[in-house]
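dumping this here before i forget
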Amino acid sequence: MSIYRSLCTKEKTLAVVGLGYVGLPVALAFARHFRVIGYDTNQTHIQHLKAGIDPNRELPSEAFQGCDIQFTYTAGDLAQAHFFVVAVPTDVDEHKVPNLKPLQLASAEIGRILKAGDYVVYESTVYPGCTEEDCLPVLEKHSGLTQGPDFKIGYSPERISPGEPSRPLKSITKVVSGSDPDALAEIAAVYGQIIEAGVYQASSIRVAEAAKVIENTQRDLNISLMNELAIIFDRMGIDTQEVLAAAATKWNFQKFYPGLVGGHCIGVDPYYLLHKSIELGYEPQVILSGRRVNDNMPGWVAKKLVQLLLKKDKNPRQSKVLVMGITFKENVADIRNSKVATLIRELQEYSIQVQVSDPLASPEEVQHEYNLTLNNDILDGYDAVVVAVAHQAFTAYDASYFLSIMNPNPILMDLKGLYQIQHPTLEYWRL
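structure:
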């Protein structure tokens, strides 16, 4: 019997390794059709999941209902499974070098309990070749088995979009790939059970890996162009948002916006492609340039605020600034690779007193990750307010609100273009 049919009859079990923003929705979706083991090394995380609580605050408690799933932090429980989906994070270190340690640890755990006839499918974002060159050897080493005759592998890049409930997992076309035609057919059938939008069968694992990594590289480059234009137009005294609105009247203009590019995808994935390309002897020019522009934006914004403070005869060393939002994007609690945190550090380098507020971020996580104190008690006496994230909660604010919490000659920096404020006593600047 095929692995797909064995999963459908629940004779065999599917396991998802890594239950973060990607793994949890995938595990719950599969658990509505198959018997599932959800594994994560974070014990506190698992306790929340057992209680039907998503620690990432992305999924409601109803999402856990009707699911045949066992949550565990005990690696030995994975031995019950025959189809493994790996959804662990892949980030970069301080030198922008891909960190494959979580992927290799997960591969080792699976390898120790891998059985003949099993399948292992990776969803984590990697560079082309990583699944077969870096992960497969670990599986074979720890299992003593050989890919092909003993077990199969595949790659199906994640396309979860946190903070966008209108784009659930089932509505996003899933790219799948396998180590041979039989593996591809089985993996496509398994994912086809949960993806209403359908699956796209890539010709090889490397093609699927490359497709994923260029999705976010393309967005990174498009945003870097907008950021560079914003820098140029600021020197010209032109509103970038107005330029984009005018240009977008042409049918084939692609409308992207400037901003701080952080998070675990757009701000990270291009480095995986850069790493592999440089390893092969080619140093990409366009990708590297785009990354440089986006990585430098927090420093440029901080410098711009200092210039505005000086313009208003305010001493930066004696100024108090409120930064609203620290998550990497709007309407999520995820603070990984937040460029707002980098902006805050840049402002503190100018000896500016900074208060950070965010209704969604966890104060404990912000303290642990960035050694910053999150204070949601909005007071008054601010010389400037920086709205850094377009949370829904911020959209209702207007000029009168900002003026009520600010000192005379106030400055409002709108990094997401949320407002269109024209007020004689409020210096309004947007990216």
